[in-house]
Amino acid sequence: MAGMTSHLKIDFVSDVSCPWCAVGLGSLEAALRRVAPDVTAELHFQPFELNPQMPPEGQDTFEHLSQKYGSTREQQAQSREMIRQRGAEVGFEFSPEGRPRIYNTFDAHRLLHWAELESPARQAALKKLLLKAYFTDRQNPSDHEVLVRLAAEAGLDAARAREILASDEFARETRERERMYTDAGIHSVPAIIINDQHLISGGQPVEVFERALRQIAGAAPASVAVA
User: Fold this and answer.
1) The whole model's pTM is what?
2) What's the CATH code, domain 6-217?
3) Which parts of the sequence belong to the DSBA-like thioredoxin domain (predicted)?
4) What would the pLDDT profile of 64-111 be if each residue is shown by its tens digit?
5) Domain ranges of the chain
């Protein structure tokens, strides 16, 4: 690849309340640093809701996970520690206590949709701030005051963010985009789609992303699919 530069389009389909999405994003960004400057990419964050029916007040995390997966407190603690270690490997800090509640993330996705229209760089900044607010700082990503503050920190207009949240603006567009990805067969996240045809699923290690990026940038035959 000497002397050649490839530019990739990457759609990162994920939810703000998905811990493996934080791990996967950290791994992907580390891989992109490794392949630079031969390979560059523009990230676009696409919406996916793990719990679209979650009420505004949310649900206790242990209660939610035990209902959904039948897991015990000990199993959840083991899983939380494994994810914490994987996050630390790629520079993402999970709170050792875990997240107290699971929340509805639709409004966060509406803001991310708007942020992409403003600037992909600001959308990326907002996405990372949302993940940190929830998983590191244990804040509520459905709270409008939290969302407005994070939008401002990402360089977006706070008054405009508040206006969007007070309305149903971008709700239709966000739902349509969610359906587009589920209709395409994506039912778990993170799902990383490169150049609209190569799919990498899950919070993979940095090496997996690096190998895939190099193969795709070098026009490797066939698509790269990682289960």
Assistant:
1) 0.93
2) 3.40.30.10
3) 10-213
4) 999 999 999 999 999 999 999 999 999 999 999 999 999 999 999 999
5) 6-217
